[in-house]
UniProtKB/TrEMBL annotation:
Residues 14-118 form the Serine acetyltransferase N-terminal domain. One of its GO terms (cellular component) is cytoplasm. Pathway: Amino-acid biosynthesis; L-cysteine biosynthesis; L-cysteine from L-serine: step 1/2. Its EC number is 2.3.1.30. GO terms for biological process: cysteine biosynthetic process from serine. It comes from the Bacteria. InterPro entries: Hexapep (IPR001451), Hexapep_transf_CS (IPR018357), LbH_SAT (IPR045304), Ser_AcTrfase_N (IPR010493), Ser_AcTrfase_N_sf (IPR042122), Ser_O-AcTrfase (IPR005881), Serine_acetyltransferase (IPR053376), Trimer_LpxA-like_sf (IPR011004). Belongs to the transferase hexapeptide repeat family. Keywords: Acyltransferase, Amino-acid biosynthesis, Repeat, Transferase. It catalyses: L-serine + acetyl-CoA = O-acetyl-L-serine + CoA. Pfam families: Hexapep, SATase_N. GO terms for molecular function: serine O-acetyltransferase activity. This is Serine acetyltransferase. It comes from Actibacterium naphthalenivorans.
Length: 271
């Protein structure tokens, strides 16, 4: 009975599906066999596959993939929530990104997903007091993926960063669960102040491409920020804001904007 319970607790439907998709991918395109085997099928768990994949993407002449893999393995072994968050992120990308048709795509190909997972390892290092190593991870994520997330920022689960290029998230920023954002989003400060100076994004928020959210302001849960907007003041829950500077233009229009990815403004314009 105890063995049965142990087997049940180790079932990982996300990892099982990843492995099934990996086998199908090799059948469809044998030339990718080496990549798919080394990245997925060679491993026994999602956390092991993530540690391997991130170490290859972030390695350089300054730090080898072996050293980075040891760091990532240590992080995943110490904090199981990192792998739990990764599972939620995989599902989020699959459900929200129209270009994502399989679970394996984020792990193998999508730099937004990979950047967030690397940030999570850097954030673990930051919490452990290993700040210089966390800064190194931040630097390599920026150089490799074009995404700059300070390791002290706090980011929830179920995150989807589509395309991801030029995304910047500052040191004291907080991002809730089930948030979606597109490329060129900035969660930044407004000056040289050193205290709590970055935005606090609620759960279920959708942030359009090129939007800039600046200062220690709060964006309420389930709100929408239109593409290209500059947000300088608090945003109420379940609200759509647009413009430079951003103003309220209506309700969010649905219960979970970050999931529906509906970017049309009231009256038919694009968010």
């Amino acid at each position: 009975m105890a063995e049965t319970r142990a087997r049940i607790t180790t079932v990982d439907p996300v990892w099982n599906r990843l492995c099934q998709e990996a086998e199908a991918a090799i059948r469809d395109e044998p030339l990718l066999g080496g990549l798919v085997h080394s990245s997925i099928l060679h491993h026994k768990s999602l956390k092991a596959a993530l540690a391997y994949r991130l170490s290859l993407k972030l390695s350089s002449g300054e730090m080898s993939d072996q050293m980075l893999r040891e760091i990532a393995d240590e992080a995943y072994a110490s904090d199981p929530s990192l792998a739990d968050a990764a599972r939620a992120d995989v599902v989020a990308v699959f459900e929200r990104d129209a270009a994502c048709h399989r679970y394996l795509q984020p792990l193998l190909y999508f730099k937004g997903f990979q950047a967030v997972q690397a940030y999570r390892v850097g954030h673990w290092l930051w919490k452990e007091g290993r700040h210089d190593l966390a800064y190194f991870i931040q630097m390599r994520v920026s150089e490799s993926f074009g995404v700059d997330i300070h390791p002290a920022a706090r980011i929830g689960r179920g995150i989807m960063i589509d395309h991801a290029h030029s995304v910047v998230i500052g040191e004291t920023a907080v991002v809730g669960d089930n948030v979606s954002m597109l490329h060129s989003v900035t969660l930044g400060g407004t000056g040289k102040e050193e205290e709590d100076r970055h935005p606090k994004i609620g759960d279920g928020v959708l942030i359009g491409a090129g939007a800039k959210v600046l200062g220690n302001i709060r964006v309420g849960s389930c709100s929408r920020i239109a593409a290209g907007s500059v947000v300088l003041h608090d945003v109420p829950e379940a609200t759509t804001v647009a413009g430079v500077p951003a103003k309220i233009v209506g309700k969010a229009g649905c219960a979970q904007p970050s999931v529906t990815m509906d970017q049309l403004l009231p009256g038919g314009g694009d968010a």
